[in-house]
Amino acid sequence: MEKLAERMSDIMRQKKISAAELARRIGTDRSTIGHYLRGDYLPKYDKIQKIADSLGVSVSYITGMTDDPAPTGDPGLDGFLDRFIRSTQPGSFGSVTVSPEDLEILAAFHEADPRIQSAVRKLLDLPEL
Fold it and tell me: What is the dihedral of CA 128, 24, 61, 48, to 10 degrees?
């Protein structure tokens, strides 16, 4: 998701929106936005939607699925994830190897109750975003 960090940074610069201002708009803190911009963390899907809405672009655009920034008709995060899962083939994805099982796990995690997602994050020692 380095495209997300790149596009966030570009849009924030173009619209003269600071990390502190974006953080205020989406209900998080400035340091979290800094982590997103550096690619340290990936925002949860609901945060990606809030970021896109706050910056006035579509989820598809900010995640690099399209080059059209207009939010009109954007399928949102569910559509993004569905397209991602359908379009991603087992094999290499950047520096990560993605297996069919990985895609099943991603889909199951996305559809899980937030409490289940939180428990999985704790089990895997992943940060809550």
Answer: 20
